[in-house]
What does this fold into?
Amino acid sequence: MTARAIITIFLISLAGAGFASPYDDAMRSVRTLSDSRCVRLLKFGRSHSDRSIPAFVISDFTVDSRDKSRILICAGQHGDEFDPVKSVLFLCKNLAAGKDPGLLKRCAIVVVPMVNPDGIAASRRENAVDVDTNRDWVDLTTCETRFVHKIIKVWKPNLLIDVHNWNEPSPTPGNALEVPACDTIARENVVLAAARRARDSSEMSLIECTPISDKRLFHRRYCALGYAAYLLETRNGEDYQARDRIYRTAIKSLVNSVSSRNGARYIMSPASMSFKSASVGPYLDPIPKATSNSTSLLAAVMLGIAFIITAFLSKPLPKRETVAWSHRFTRCAVDPEIGSGRIAYRHTPHPITARSWVNRRLRSRYVVHEPEPEETEDDEISVLMPEAVNSLSR
Ligand SMILES: [Zn+2]
It folds into this structure.
């Protein structure tokens, strides 16, 4: 191997060290979101190549969630369409930061931001076994589609939104909101009215599917199963900022249509009427309000004192690394792949305990004299005079 080849490999490995794949980026965003009081992680799915399929609920859990509108937003079915993933996660970040508190009071939004993580990691349309997940919603042959289907079966959302972008010239208007054909006129009218409001606010085109459209697509399949389901597309070459604005305005408009018209949501999505809140109870339970009576205050003080004493008397902990996932919600699933990676760890500093403090004081008071190492024959042999070296090398 020449010196130039070695330098090239070294430079490539240096560049690689700072590179994070879109999959890692998305997982990092989900992990950051998991720290919010408005976010509860669902048990993650696993992709064909054993990557995590993240899923979480975002809502205001201080208010009773049982009568909220349930929304499901998914993105990243096609691995070469990363802008929808990024935009949906950005929308969640804004919601978690309190940008639209009214919406989170009215809705529990289930988000699957990356349906096809293997495709996202490889930046290719299909999943790891070459299946286009958005042609698999009738047969459910992939673990990715089965995972989302299971969520829909349990949560029975009032509204489903699937977010995509074109990577090639589109045969239809590129920035479009697609509405599947509904089984009854009454339902179609309400579904279309919500779509028209979203179109007007986001300046997208409206595409109405015909009964002969391919029924294997997500929004068409779930519309046929009785849910209100929409597809958002943006045109090829549209920059991220424009796409992000279009997705967010359309999503907010659709969510507002469903959540502010209580009767309409059941006409739009009759399948969601059979929802049983007990099936997802822990995810919707309100955060218990802190009691401020003197007993609980005293208990908290006693607990704090006990904790300080225990921490002070305990042995110094060995230096260890902890996973940086939020532990606020104990049912959260930890991604072992990301969890063991470099980015997921942070160092826990050594606590100063009784023992470490005493040791430090003793060390500063007494100078310990290490015994001088004895000279051995080896030491003498290792010191060779130049003449001896020359004689050995001959
Ligand atoms: Zn797509």
Observations:
- The two ends are 30 Å apart (CA to CA).
- Residues 295-365 form one domain.
- Residues 89 and 189 are 31 Å apart (CA to CA).
- The longest strand covers residues 69-75.
